[in-house]
Amino acid sequence: MKKRFLSILQYAAFFSVGIFLVWWSIHKMSDKNWENCKNALQSARYGLFVPVFFILSLSHISRAIRWKILMKPLGYNPRFLNTFFAVMIGYLANLAIPRLGEVLKCTILGKYEKVPPDKLVGTIVVERAVDLLSLIIVFFIAIITQASIIGSYAKETIKENFLSGSKQAMLTKFLILVISIVVIYYVLKYIFKKYGENKFIHRMKNIATGIATGLASIKNLENKKAFIFHSVFIWCCYVGGTYLGFFATSGTAHLSFAAAFPVLAFASIGMIITPGGIGSYPVFIMEVMLLYNIEEGIGFANGNLQWVAQFLIVLIVGFLSLLLLPYYNKKSNHA
Q: In 3D, which of 77, 107, 76, 74 has the Cα closest to residue 89?
């Protein structure tokens, strides 16, 4: 009961942030910008939702295939449709409670494919690590290709937040970080060994083992090239979908393909801040587009259209996956 209450409280907090960002974005707009926003939405090319839907759906399919590649070294080869259904239901769950989807999709494969959820924890960690690396690469591409527009801003931000202080201070911070990691490692090792019979500690030990196994599975991948291909393809779909989204509103249709990189990079941060990026996703897009001299109203309209496109994909395909999952497995069992 307490756990459920905390989950609801967490969701309410994140959701409130999203609603506040929507209100704040609209409230700070001038009447002219708000009028431009409404005009942009009224004259938008909604037919572009179809190709964007197709491109982003391909990214989800590719993500399911990549997950299967990660599971193979662990000795598991779940059916593709069950893996895809699990991925989409996980995305759907994340709209309600952040990170719930990661647990749920492991549970689904545990139920329908007999894959121990604890063993899948490591693969989730690997996926998130690769996604983080991919996002960093997108940021670097954005800085390199759009240096004249966002380069100086990004460099100043990095300098102020990560490279501030003297060399001695930076070295001290680094040593503290290394020592802390070493201390935490040995403390956890001692706890797992000393209190290994405790139910909670045993559970945590299984999760830690699952993470280690998942991370180690990278070097045992039978098809590393396919794993790299799908990792690149997923983010190519994201960039392509973002660029195609520029054409949804006339005021942003002139933006170059290179502009899709900074827009995607900062919008991805919005997806992390609030459930499904509600409120924050369009705000980040609007803020980046201001650097390209796009008026607030038009940028906000385009950001909302791009967010709605992603939201609808997760909502529609996620619900279909939820409905088809038991039917597909019932049919498979009778086959």
A: 107
The whole-angstrom separation of Cα 71 and Cα 78 is 8
Alpha-carbon gap, residue 271 to 182, rounded angstroms: 32
Tell me the three state secondary structure of residue 21: helix
Q: What confidence tens digit (pLDDT) does each residue in 36-75 have?
A: 667 777 878 888 889 999 999 999 999 999 999 988 888 8
Q: How far apart are CA 313 and CA 241, in angstroms?
A: 12
Closest CA to 73 of 285, 226, 201: 226
DSSP per residue over 266-328, as a string?
Answer: HHHHHHHHSGGGTTHHHHHHHHHHHTTT--HHHHHHHHHHHHHHHHHHHHHHHHHHHHHHHHH
pTM of the predicted protein model: 0.74
Q: What is the amino acid identity at position 47? A: G
189 phi/psi in degrees, rounded to 5: -60, -40
Phi, psi of 163 (to 5 degrees): -120, 25
